[in-house]
Design a protein that fits this description.
305 residues; mainly alpha; MetI-like fold; 15 helices; 0% strand
Length: 305
């Protein structure tokens, strides 16, 4: 070390590489040199403010929904007590029937029969509807042959087919399953076919240029591109499947929540029938919410677009 270097301060005598190594841990922690380590950066402050605003908005939405629901129940109770006959369902009467209905074995038997039919029908409809929809969306000849019939049946009220299906399959749970499958199949086919048509040909052309096999193109490109449309079709199919199951139970007098509702309404036990309707709504929400959460978390670009 020269005499000039001895007269320099210690920080000045440090080599550039050593000074860079000393600054690196500070930079990794997101703290600029010369700034206090305990002071939050502007980016952290902005993200904290956004998170607080999002929590406040969610709280406001939740309170608004709760207040609206309470208002509807109060209005229903007051109007029914003042204007309707005594056998008309009221919120307090429905609440009072909860122990009786939930302790009734026939209620749970009916609920299990309806839920099982809906789940089986949805599984069948999703599998076959996805395959048919993908083929319609990517093969032009198949689309030309089937699109008219899919659009026609999708637009018509399929409830009109229930009496015909009961003649074909008899007054058995098989008739209800057929109604559920038909009701849920069409929206899945329609939605997945639209997803297949919306896929740009550039993606499949690149895959073919790299000699990708046909099954890899369909499973790795076409199906993932149609996934948002498939989830939208399933969302529609859930409601239609429930409607089909309940209507089939109405007409064919099958064991299920539909016949349970019909029997109690005709027996002037509307409070019990209302509880069965509440259970149907709860089942629909329990099935639809996971799909909505999956789309919101895994496919945010689809909702944003």
């Amino acid at each position: 070390m020269s005499a000039a270097d001895r007269n320099l301060p210690a920080a000045a005598r440090t080599s550039p590489d050593a000074r860079r190594a000393q600054r690196l841990p500070v930079m990794r922690r997101g703290i600029a040199p010369g700034r206090g380590a305990g002071r939050p950066s502007g980016l952290e402050e902005a993200s904290g403010a956004e998170a607080e605003a999002a929590r406040r908005e969610r709280t406001q939405v939740f309170l608004a929904r709760v207040a609206t629901g309470i208002g509807i129940l109060v209005l229903w109770q007051v109007c029914a007590a003042a204007l309707a006959p005594g056998y008309i369902a009221r919120p307090l009467g429905v609440l009072g029937q909860v122990p009786t209905v939930f302790g009734d074995q026939s209620f749970w038997s009916a609920a299990g029969s309806t839920v099982l039919a809906v789940v089986e029908g949805l599984i069948i409809a999703i599998v076959f509807g996805t395959v048919i929809g993908l083929v319609m969306g990517r093969v032009r000849d198949v689309d030309r042959a089937l699109r008219l019939y899919v659009d026609s049946f999708y637009a018509m009220p399929l409830v009109a087919l229930v009496p015909l299906l009961t003649v074909w399959f008899g007054y058995t749970p098989l008739a209800r399953l057929a109604v559920v499958v038909i009701e849920a199949l069409l929206p899945v086919i329609f939605s997945v076919a639209e997803g297949g048509r919306s896929l740009s040909a550039e993606f499949t052309d690149v895959a073919r240029a790299y000699r990708a096999p046909w099954w890899r193109i369909w499973a790795g490109i076409v199906l993932p591109a149609s996934l948002p449309y498939l989830l939208g079709g399933i969302d529609l199919a859930i409601g239609r499947a429930l409607v089909g199951a309940v209507v089939a139970e109405f007409i064919a007098s099958l064991n299920g929540l539909g016949y349970y509702i019909l029997f109690n309404v005709r027996s002037f036990q509307e409070d019990r029938a209302m509880l069965a309707m509440v259970l149907l709504v709860a089942f629909a929400l329990a099935v639809r919410v996971p799909f909505s959460m999956f789309v919101r978390r895994e496919l945010p670009w689809y909702r944003a677009g």
